[in-house]
## 1
Amino acid sequence: MKIENLLKYQEVDGQLKKLVSEINQSEESVKGKKLGAFLKESEEKIKKMDKRADELNALIQKLKENYQQSTQKFAELEEGVEQAIDKDELNYVAKKLAELTKTIASIEKDLANAIKEMGDIAKRYDDLRAKVPSAKAQYKECRAKFDQRKKEQEPQISALKQQLAELEKDIDSKMMEAYQKVRGQNIYPVVVPLVGNNCGGCRMDLSIGAVGKIESQGYAVCENCHRFIYKK
Ligand SMILES: [Zn+2]
């Protein structure tokens, strides 16, 4: 279980990491990701707007029906005023008319609000829809460039992966597993030197036991960050 083998592995792993990160941080990758997110977001927004527009259409329809019914009833009640036989009946009809006036005003207000919201949605919808085609074209362009770059780097990536597979043969499987577990948390380097009595990664003080292990087996595992620590 020599730490030297793991250090060699880590060096190649670092080259691979650098290469992959260069590809992922390239302009086409960063821009492409942004455009992809924009397109996805737009699709969701458009879907939501469609749904709200349907709801508003139904609401407007219903409000218009209510309005018609209420105005019709109002006309009927007005006739009732003329035909009222006594003061009580007149008062009753007048009260009903006042109530209905309020109801009609409220329907008119709701209707105006719904129509306004519908107009706002239509505008936002058009704005968004206008932006989508150009974003799609740009996304496609970025994607093609990204794929091209990836393809160009592929032989180098394969060679490094091949090298890693070869180096892995000389490393204890448990050690490899422990390395990959830390590496999987996007931590690099995983094998770090001892700095004073501290872990070279997280700077935590090592126990006497851990320092002893470094002396006896060449390395120890940090109890805090689980990196491998060796003495340079
Ligand atoms: Zn540590």
## 2
Amino acid sequence: MFSQKAAKIPPFYVMEVLERAREMERSGRDIIHFEVGEPDFPTAPHICEAAYSAIRAGETKYTHSMGLPQLRQAIADYYNRKFNIELNPEQVIVTSGTSPALLLLFMGLLNEGDEVIMSNPYYAGYPNFVEYLGGRPVYVYTREDEGFSLTPDAVARAFTPKTRAVLLNSPSNPTGHVMSPGTIRALAEIAGSVPIISDEIYQGLVYKGEDHTILEYTDNAFVLNGFSKLYAMTGWRLGYLIAPPEYMRVLQNLQQHFFICANSFTQHAGIAALEGPQEHVKEMVATYDERRKYIIERLKKIGFGIASEPVGAYYVLANAKEFSNDSLELSRRLLEEAGVAVTPGIDFGDGAQGYLRFSYANSIEKIREGLDRVDNLLNK
Ligand SMILES: Cc1ncc(COP(=O)(O)O)c(C=O)c1O
């Protein structure tokens, strides 16, 4: 028998869609992918080269549990340069992806019954991390006509004496929403002595307006970030957690026992990503933006609702209620009948039921072909 905690974890539908899509591909069907949340670009050659050299140089042992000093420095330099702040590398802990950083953080923060305020729709993993570790997610529902933005008043109303943290994710998965500086500032003020957790993994993937970090507004914050999205390094498994100095020792103890350290040669690749040329990042961002404009236009023409233009990450959470209120059933139909894989909104909470998440991390030709198929199935 499994533990009760494990048995309560629901499937991650996007993985189910992907697995079914791959099975159909193996039997000869041509599938267009809008479900996967990972860049379609390869990792830049100079980043790969840094890993090859590290392996050749024998850098294949455990590193310091907090990460290579040069990488921690490069991460602090990146934040300091970009946001004009004063982050100390001692506040950075390098992890094997942002997901382990989330686990580490919630292990370090939560006591039984502690509440974590988060938006609904949310990134699918969040409530599972919180509940698994004995906490309780408290949802603040966001509205399509407000661009799925968290409103400070609604967050203020969700506070109770048990509130342990407020979790933000901007740019957001699944909505593509980017929080305004005014909203981030207001949320930091409302939170006061309660820490804010800011998942900034889509930072840099912003197509209108400016990028921000929570650290510009408060020091009482934890930042999660990584290399998966901006540097197209999903499979490398490299991320990091930034925390206030007083938490570092406890986080280090947890890291030493549960993870030991992040991959050694991957960390060398991370240094190359942050300190090397950035032209490839600019090109990827420009390409995502072209696709973003195209997909929004087409989805609207097909009949999906997009009340407010998503300007970050590479997702559109499209209102599909014109076609069905059951996003799981609709995504199954699109896959089986049209060979188009999309993620059902229900993966991201009941606030996204009746929505489909389209990822535009795919070529414009594939996006066109996929949307032609969607149009044919739903409208003709
Ligand atoms: C919002 C958000 N946070 C965290 C992650 C996990 O990323 P990683 O590959 O660094 O574990 C993802 C991945 O899709 C994500 O969308």
